[in-house]
Recover the amino acids of this structure.
């Protein structure tokens, strides 16, 4: 039988490390889908190859290894990114509970906590996302991550590494709000599990549903972010895609509403089960830490 007493809060370093381990596990499993997603989003126009067609095109024209093009920046990013996500969610959850005087999380607080965690996470990931997008682009001419960084800094200065900050902010805010908000609701609906295996199954299910919901909500913002960060406009020229919400209107007007969901299939195939893997690995790692750090319950 599982103990239903409240689990003892872990120190920040433990939640940070658990998030880092989960993030690296997820990206090594699902990265090729991210490359395909980016290619589909950068494809301007109403006609696209689709998931299978894009996969085949990349492999046929550029080789299988291209599916792992740009892996280094997100791999370097995953530790701080996912660690920040879960550590920030834990921090904001405790903060909002204290501010409201509540003793346990509810649906509105869960969503607010997720939105706040996403905003925090966005400031960490922008340079890594920018370099990843530039390397994943079919027209990429960079020899590698550092060559890309040098080129961006040379042309736009250090602040150039934060191109697309506003779009990245909205993408992460809406994904995390959907992800963490859904996890709370799904966990409440699932039957209580009395075994560790059953609890792991609940985490996998709720994380996968959360990843799906977050992806449905944030894909239009991800499309715009890819367009903004993929653009290489000349100095002094106003980019076509600049601010997030006007860019959403531009894409919808020129290419149709459906264009705002370009890359949705590979994205949801990655972040649906990927969200389940994230939550599963985080909870399993935190359980190990609780065991190592002493009695797991209050």
């Amino acid at each position: 039988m599982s103990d239903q007493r409240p689990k003892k809060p872990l120190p920040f370093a433990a939640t940070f490390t658990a998030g880092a381990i989960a993030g690296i596990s997820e990206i090594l499993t699902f990265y090729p889908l991210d490359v395909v997603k980016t290619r589909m989003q950068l494809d301007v126009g109403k006609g696209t190859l689709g998931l299978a067609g894009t996969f085949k095109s990349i492999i046929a024209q550029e080789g299988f290894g291209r599916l792992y093009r740009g892996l280094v920046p997100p791999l370097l990013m995953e530790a701080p990114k996912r660690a920040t996500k879960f550590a920030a969610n834990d921090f904001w959850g405790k903060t909002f509970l204290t501010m409201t005087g509540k003793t346990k999380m509810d649906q509105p607080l869960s969503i607010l906590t997720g939105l706040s965690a996403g905003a925090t996470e966005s400031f960490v990931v922008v340079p890594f996302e920018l370099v990843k997008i530039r390397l994943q682009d079919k027209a990429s001419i960079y020899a590698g991550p550092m060559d890309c960084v040098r080129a961006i800094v040379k042309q736009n200065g250090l602040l150039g590494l934060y191109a697309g900050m506003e779009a990245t902010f909205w993408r992460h805010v809406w994904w995390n709000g959907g992800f963490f908000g859904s996890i709370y609701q799904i966990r409440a609906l699932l039957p209580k599990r009395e075994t560790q295996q059953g609890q792991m199954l609940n985490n996998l299910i709720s994380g996968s549903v959360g990843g799906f919901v977050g992806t449905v909500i944030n894909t239009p913002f991800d499309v715009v972010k890819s367009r903004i960060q993929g653009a290489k406009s000349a100095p002094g020229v106003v980019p076509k895609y600049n601010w997030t919400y006007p860019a959403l209107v531009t894409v919808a007007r020129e290419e149709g509403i459906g264009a705002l969901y370009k890359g949705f299939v590979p994205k949801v195939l990655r972040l649906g089960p990927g969200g389940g893997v994230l939550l599963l690995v985080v909870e399993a790692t935190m359980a190990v830490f609780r065991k190592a750090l002493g009695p797991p319950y209050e």
Notes: DSSP finds nine helices and no strands in the chain. The chain has a mean pLDDT of 80. The chain has one domain: 12-232+239-292. The CA atoms of residues 170 and 221 lie 7 Å apart.
